[in-house]
Specification:
Oligomer: single chain
Number of helices: 1
Order of helices and strands: HEEEEEE
CATH superfamily: Bacteriophage SPP1 head-tail adaptor protein
CATH topology: Thrombin, subunit H
Distance between the termini: 39 Å
CATH architecture: Beta Barrel
Length: about 120
């Protein structure tokens, strides 16, 4: 398959997630500054809207360490709501999904070749 074929596959997966998924917001910190006079940290945040489908871990997968009870998997589209590229979620970033904020534990791009077609993201409250 060519790279164009994988881009088409990514578009098809994004269409499926758009149809079956729910809104998600990825919150990314772009910069932080420490103000010594006030001992405060100010951060510049970027929020990217997209879509995701939720999946639960099977009980046999929950080991209490890397996967905890209450963690869930999100299949996140590589296409943001504004049709730009959704950035790959990074560990410790936050995602708003299903009415609550979740912390990204890990992200594994689903990438059969050179193009990611979706992101499988483990999140924790």
């Amino acid at each position: 398959m060519s790279e164009g074929d994988y881009r088409e596959m990514a578009a098809d997966v994004a269409d499926d997630i758009d149809e079956d998924g729910a809104p998600v917001i990825l919150e990314r910190t772009l910069s932080s500054e420490y103000e010594s006079g006030s001992s405060e940290v100010t951060s510049v945040q970027r929020k990217v809207e997209g879509r995701a489908v939720r999946d639960e871990y099977a009980l046999r997968d929950i080991d209490g360490d890397s996967i905890r009870f209450g963690d869930c998997k999100l299949l996140v589209s590589t296409r943001a709501a504004d049709n730009s590229a959704m950035p790959e979620p990074k560990t410790d970033e936050r995602m708003l999904f299903d009415g609550g904020w979740w912390t990204v534990v890990r992200c594994a791009p689903i990438k059969p070749a050179t193009v990611a077609v979706a992101y499988q993201v483990q999140v924790r409250r």
